[in-house]
Amino acid sequence: MNTLKTLAATLLPTLLAATALTSLPAFANEAVIRKNLAERFPNLPKPDEVRLSTIPGIWELRVNDSQIVYTDAEANHLIQGEIIDTKSKRNLTEERVNKLTAIDFAKLPVKDAFTIVRGNGKRKIAVFEDPNCGYCKRFERDLQNVDNVTIHMFLYPILGQGSTDTSRNIWCAKDRAKAWQDWMVRDQVIPAPGAADKCDVTALARNVEFGKKTRITGTPTLIFADGQRIPGAIGAAQVEKILSDIGKPETAKAQ
Question: How far apart are alpha carbons 195 and 193 in whole angstroms?
C-alpha cells in the first residue's frame, strides 16, 4: 500500500504537467484568434467563446450569445454557414445552436400563459406568439392538425400597440383559448374588456421581459419539452416529428 501511495505521489505532478502542456496550444491559438480578429475587425463583437470544433483545424467562434461562425487557427479566414456530418447526416451547427439556446421547459413561467389541450395532452409544447403576426396565424391554422398535445400559449406582443391591445382583449376574455382560436383561426374580432371589468394584464409585460432575457426575437417561437427552441412557422408535420422524437427512448434516437 505504501508503495502505491509513493508511486501515485510521484506520478501525479507529472500527469498534471502533461495535461497543462497539452492545453497550451489551445490557449495559444485562442489568443492568436482573438488578437487577429480585434486588429483586423475592430468593430466586430468580441467572441463570447473560442473553442476547437469537431473538425481538425477549424475553430468555432460564438458571438452575440448564440451565433456560430468558424475560423482557422490564425483567424485568416472566417467561415459562415453550417457544418454537416455526411456520415451521420447530422447538422452539427444546428445541434450546437439548439444546445446554446435551449430553455428549461420546467422553468417556463406557465402562470403567464393559457393552456390548450388536445386529445390526451400527453405531449407538451410552449409557443410565444404575437396576435398580429401573419406567420403566427399561418402556424396556428396548421397546428390544428396536431393532436394529443398540451400547448402553453404565451401572448408575446412585440409588433406595436395594436398587438398589445389585441393581446389584452384575448387575455381578459372569459375563455382565453377560445378567444385566441377565434382571432387566429377564424378571423373574429375579440371585444375589449368593459371599463368595469377587472383584468390584470401584467403577464403580458412579464412575457416580453422573459423573451428579452432568453433572446426570443421573433414569432412564432416554439419550445419543446426537451428544451430545444425552434424559431419560425414550421409545419404541422415537423412539429409532429419533433414531438414524436422526444417521446422515443434514447437508444432509439441514437440509431
Answer: 7
Report CA 161 to chain centroid distance, whole Å. Answer: 26
Give the model's confidence band at 20: pLDDT under 50 very low, under 70 low, under 90 confident, else very high: very low
* Residue 96 clears pLDDT 80, i.e. is over it: yes
pTM for the full predicted model: 0.72
Separation between Cα atoms, residue 139 and residue 4, nearest integer Å = 66
Pairing of strands 78-79, 67-71: antiparallel
Task: Give whole-number Cα distances, 95 to 166, 176, 201, in Å.
Answer: 36, 35, 36
CATH code: domain 2-101 is 3.10.450.70
Structural domain boundaries in the chain = 2-101, 105-254
Give domain 105-254's CATH architecture. Answer: 3-Layer(aba) Sandwich (3.40)
- State the helix-helix crossing angle for 202-213 and 161-171, rounded to 10 degrees: 120
pLDDT tens sequence across 209-245: 999 999 898 999 999 999 999 989 999 999 999 999 9
